[in-house]
Amino acid sequence: METLERIITEHSFFAGLDQAVLNLVAGCASNVRFAAGTYIFKEGDEANAFYLIREGKVALEIYAPQHKPIIVDTLDVGDILGWSWLLPPFQWKFNAHATTGLRAIALDGECLRTKCEENHDLGYELLKRFAKIIERRLEATRFQLLDVYGSRKIA
User: Fold this and answer.
1) At 79, which helix (H) or strand (E)?
2) For 118-147, how does the pLDDT look when each residue is reduced to its tens digit (9 = 90+)?
C-alpha cells in the first residue's frame, strides 16, 4: 500500500532529507484530484499549497494583453507544481489548469511555512530546492515569450 510518507520519501524533490524532516513534510500532505480542464489556481489568487504530480498533465499559462493565454510550461508526472506559497505575498504568479485528469499530493503551504519557522534547516532545504524550480520556470517563460514575440517583424 502506498502511503503519503512513502511517496514523499521516494520523490526526487525530497532526496537527501532525513526521515524526521520528511515526516514533518508528510504531516502537511493530502491526496487531491482535478478533472481535465479544471483550473488548479489562477494568477493573483492566494497561494497556499504546492503539488507533487502523480498522474496527468498541467499547463502553466500567462495572459498577455490582446493575446490568447500563453502556455509557458507543461508539467507531467513527477513534477512539482507551485512555488508561490513559499514567498510573500503568497499569490500565484501563473494560471495552472489540468489538461488531463490529474492526481497529485497537495502540500499545505501554511502548514509548511509554520514548520519552516520552527525548523530553519527544513526552510533552508525547501528554499534551495524551490529556487531550482523557480529558475526552470523563468527559463521556460523566457523561451516561450521569445517564441511568441520574436516572430513579429520589426518595421
Assistant:
1) none
2) 999 999 999 999 999 889 878 877 777 776
Cell of 56: 496527468
- Please state, in angstroms and rounded to a whole number, the distance separating the CA atoms of residues 38 and 51: 15
Domains by residue range for the chain, with CATH? 29-149 (2.60.120.10)
> Interior CA angle at 64 toward 58 and 68, to 5°?
65
The DSSP secondary structure of 17-68, one letter per residue, reads --HHHHHHHHTTEEEEEE-TT-EEE-TTSB--EEEEEEES-EEEEE--TTSP
- Rounded CA-CA distance 66/140 in Å is 21
- C-alpha cell belonging to residue 25: 513534510
Rg of the Cα trace of the chain?
17
- The tens digit of pLDDT for each residue in 51-108 reads 999 999 999 998 877 778 888 889 999 999 999 999 999 999 999 999 999 999 999 9
Q: Which residues contact 24 (CB under 8 A, 6 or more apart)?
A: 115, 119, 122
